[in-house]
Write a structure and sequence with these properties.
It is an enzyme of class 7 (translocase). It is a multi-pass membrane protein. With 228 residues, this protein is mostly helical. The chain contains seven helices and no strands. The chain is globular. It starts with a helix and ends with a helix. The C terminus is likely disordered.
């Protein structure tokens, strides 16, 4: 969840992906989240199997509580994301209303996953390091503590990238995909109106010039007749 979910979060924030179609980026985002969900389920099943085989109680620690809650909410997030944002059935106003909630819940789940990982490695150190103990700071404890610091830095970097406005996909790229088929994209309506207006002006000029030419022909014809 830490590595694959973070990749799914920042896949829209990479400048070299802004020229790709929004549908392609949605499929990549959904595919990465699906892979993370499968790996999370495998991990939870493996943890329960290990506890049952070793006669260790299940769901007694804060690590297990928050971890299971994160997996449950992540599965709901993935299901709603597929139903609302990937499949073409949800109306555009519903997508626009749920998008901030989808983004906020995704970032919250990622922060919860980081916290769960930190609690898990600390719990493992407390149970595994007996001689020497964890409090005596053996090399194993130092190594895992450094790993925990790297997890915090990594999580903060991902959250920073996901919250900065200049890392967002440009809005003109989003407008071409969020609008229904046949609808003028946002930001181009004024341009189309100006274009239509200029085309109309050109048509009026052509009509006026054509009428003037015909009027001149008539006058010339009348002049020739009067002369004759």
């Amino acid at each position: 969840l830490v590595s694959v979910l973070s990749s799914a979060i920042i896949v829209y924030r990479l400048p070299w992906t802004w020229k790709c179609s929004k549908l392609l980026m949605k499929c990549i985002h959904a595919g990465l989240n699906t892979i993370a969900m499968i790996l999370a389920i495998v991990s939870v099943v493996a943890a329960f199997d290990y506890h049952n085989a070793s006669n260790i109680p299940n769901m007694y620690s804060l690590h297990s509580w928050i971890g299971l809650i994160a997996v449950i909410f992540y599965s709901l997030q993935l299901f709603l994301g597929f139903a609302v944002f990937l499949l073409p059935f949800a109306p555009v106003p519903l997508r626009a209303a749920l998008m901030p909630i989808h983004v906020y819940s995704g970032l919250t789940i990622f922060a919860t996953v980081i916290a769960t990982a930190l609690m898990g490695i600390t719990e493992k150190l407390l149970f595994s390091l007996q001689n020497p103990s964890y409090s005596s700071s053996p090399p194993e404890a130092t190594f895992v503590n450094c790993l925990g610091l790297l997890l915090v830095i990594f999580g903060a970097l991902i959250l920073w990238m996901a919250s900065r406005p200049h890392w967002k996909r440009p809005p003109e790229e989003n407008a071409k995909v969020l609008g229904p088929i046949g609808e003028t994209p946002e930001g181009t309506e004024a341009e189309s109106t100006m274009t239509d207006g200029s085309n109309a002006d050109k048509s009026d000029l052509r009509i006026n010039s054509e009428a003037a030419r015909k009027q001149n022909l008539k006058l010339d014809d009348a002049g020739q007749r009067s002369t004759m």
